[in-house]
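Dear colleagues,

As part of the handover before I leave the project, I'm documenting each prediction I ran so the next person doesn't have to rerun anything. This entry is a single chain, and its sequence is reproduced below.
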Amino acid sequence: MRSFFVMVILLFLTFSICTAATFETVRVRDYEDVASRVVLAFSGKAEFQISKNGQMINVLVQDCSSGSAQNQFTNLSRLVSSIDQNSSGSELNIKIVVNANFQYEFLSMFEPFRIVIDIYQIHPNPSRQQRLVMADFFAGTGRLQRSDDLYAELHRKYGSDPEISYKWALLLKQRGNTDKALQQLGLISNQSTFYTKAQQLISSIKGNKPGTTESRAQSPEPRAIPEPQPNVPDSTLIADSLVTKPEITKTKSPSPTKPAPGISNSSVYLLILDFINQYLIMFLLVLGVSVLALVFLLFRIATSKKVALPPSESRILFDQDKKKRMIMQLVHDGWRPKEIARELGLSRKEVESIIDLCQSSGAEDYHPQ
């Protein structure tokens, strides 16, 4: 039974080690002095908690070790001054130090597992450029509705600003609102540096707009208006360098096919694959070790059982030391070997053999207690 408990403890320790995640890389991307995106990459899925403490963001990750990542990163971006990590048992505490007043948002992504933290600097009176960078940041990270609202606010405040109109038109085209996009592009004068880009975008919209001659020549069916995607991947997530240069990239238009409401089949499929990758191998390992432990326990039980002998052979199992004590006690009391054999149910030859053995070993004066 003791061996079985040892096997169970070893199995538990093996399971804990195999399921623990490790902290692997850190990536930071700046959007000027307005926002920064921090991506913490891990080898596997892990439970985590995020909290703000003054100028610091604490990320507490359960069942995680430091892995191959550095212990400290410094001078990462304009907003993030350093990222430190320290382990305490099975917990990993990651501290992100921010050098300005800020607010943050976070989300988790899978395959590989990543914690994405978006940090925004709080400006009491944000300038036109700061608001424009924030709108571009929202558009580039899939927050299309928030980007749309911010462009609308900029348009109301700065009127027909050619840069605002052009970037807003790009977002409107991406969201499928081509009429409003054409309206914004029409506000750009031919004296603006954005005029050539605006004309190219107008040609692109009219060439793909339902009901035009070009569209009917290319496809007999009208093109469906796409739905906005809430989580468009950012180029930071596939960057190879530790810190990406401040460069804002535009996301591609989503698929024109309207997705079905609710959870898609691909989401369910990814969840199933994640479950298989995380738990199936561990389950098979647990099952195999449990079977081995059960077989070992049954073998120990089977070998520990004594086989019952026939009545005629039961005397062989008589305790040898006790037998010697009884025979020598009777010899000391004056019994003859024949009488002793009859009293104890032994053969006379066996009794005489024991007497001779005890006397030859110097036990002729042996007096049992």
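Residues 311-360 form a domain with the Arc Repressor Mutant, subunit A fold (CATH 1.10.10). DSSP finds eleven helices and eleven strands in the chain.

All the best with the project,
I.
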